[in-house]
Specification:
By secondary structure, the protein is α+β, with helices and mostly antiparallel strands. It folds into five domains: 27 residues; 101 residues, no CATH class; 175 residues, no CATH class; 75 residues, no CATH class; 204 residues, Porin (Beta Barrel), CATH 2.40.160.40. It is 31% helix and 32% strand. It is built from 16 helices and 22 strands. The strands form three sheets. Strands 11-12-13-14-15-16-17-18-19-20-21-22 form a twelve-stranded antiparallel beta barrel. An eight-stranded antiparallel sheet has the order 3-9-7-6-5-4-8-10. The protein starts with a helix and ends with a strand.
Length: 620
Amino acid sequence: MNLPVKRIFKAFAMVLNFLVTVILMTAPLFAWGFSLQDTALYKEQALAKNLDQSTAWLKLGHYRKNLSGNFNSPIRGNFFIASEGSKDPRAELLATLDLLFDAKTSKSQCRYLARTSWLKSVLDIKAGDLEDCPERKDWKAQLGASEAYLIFAASDLSSAPSSFGHTFLRLHNPKNTGQLDLLDYGINYAAFTGTEGGALYALKGIFGYYPGSYSMLPYHQKIQEYSNLEGRDLWEYKLNLTPQQVELMIDHLLELEGSFAPYYFADENCSSQMLELIEVASPASDLTSQFHAMAIPLDTLKAVANAGLIGGEKLRTSLQTEWRARYAKLNFSERPALRSVLLKEQDTNKNYLELSKKEKAETLEAALSYLSIREYRDQKEYNDEKYKLSVARAKLGAITEPVTITPPKSPLLSPATAAFYLGYGQNDQQDYFQFKFRRGFHDLLSDDSGLAPFSQLNFFVFDVRYTPTRQNWDLNQFVFLSILSTSPWTQLEKPISWSLEVGTEPKLNPYVNGGIGASFDLPLMKATRWSLFAVSENSYLTDIAQPYLGAKSMFMMKWVDQFRTLFQSEYLYSTTQGEFHWNHLVAGSFSYRKIEIRAEAERKDTVDQWGLSLILPAPF
């Protein structure tokens, strides 16, 4: 090829390169559907419709108003686009429109799927201005979720973080029928606490020093964690959400990748964040506005139910519940034999050999149930042991009835966590009127529907009394925190029962009381538990501490669902005065629907006190 021809080709290539560059630069303006005019038009429409103040947009940004009336969002990380986006919904909306519908950054639509979907529903967006996002579509297609369930894990007083229960979501693929629902995915919100514990853990959690974020795990892993390892029953509630609303929720979860928020144990916790997710899918539900200073899982569950968002309830019992049902069925001859079976001594143990054929079968079945729990707790398989027990059980034939597990009452039937007490009584022959408020949660005489039986968890209890003879009001007691955890002993397990109470007595004298002991279930009435404690009571801590050491017996009976009694005796020795003191308490409670009537009589040494009270749910 001669030189002139080469120059012609070179010139042609330069012109072609220039034209391609011009086309690439201008194509977004006329060929690809994106234009500066369209973006400006979308902004104009959004402002004209006041979309920055719409409920749906505020829910997508997790905005809430502070005391000064300004908006603020707790979300941190890479979630917001505008520099002041966490405080300015309008600036964030305009920045979102700039980012999503600019030719250079339109792929961000795949990053902000929920925002894009909502904007598409409220603005006249051209089809050519929308990205396809095939990777996101493929991922959601594999997930296949078109339904959502709110899951409530029952409370566990043996673990501080689990004392109030826990809520999370399950995204359900309708193809996963029956036991295949284990293949669904769970959505959890939790704090990243590391390995910290004790007082530092509590303080950081109270003041929001831990970051919290959403995570997605296979549902069977959540069952293993809560139901199998921790022995907590799971209550599953189908949410009345359309497939489109569920998809919007999933899209929003994808938007929150790489984001976090300060985690507060009291209010900005797992339950409040589940409500915020549900509100994104159903903005009109307005769930979070009901919770300001505190969001207790039970209360948030009831709020969802009251909003008409629950379409069905299902209980998934834990291995622990099944084991306790089998153990409760064993008679007093079978229970000692159970231990010998697990120690592989059944061939020589007298307790086992003297059992009838049916009793041996029931004992072997209970042993198999217990080994199932041990496998999860010990993270160890007991295949050989279970095989030998199964062979021994099979040789006895089909001679036992299926174990009937009496389902606990639904958490939705539990009493209000906040309550007012209106009472009248006498203390040392002086009349008094009682006005008491309990912020949470329940005590020994409360209706235990949906709660751990024979347990107590109270906090922020104000007991104010008016004495007519003295014509004065007095803060009789303030309880900052009161916990009583009683777990019954069995032939195989010896859990520790314990109690802790921190508060003030009359004249604001602070006290700290505690105890450890053992509890035993007795086959009386509907349910009966007897607990024995070694106790330490410490009062007048601002002056000279006056510790008391002694023992306490608690006999708790549930006659029927509505009627409960408590018989308590305490024998204390004053280490400062060298004196012994007796305290006795008899109390009973009758509940009907949301109202409770309570009677108590107490003698402290020679001083008598009695009282009657009406307990009403607080309207918040």
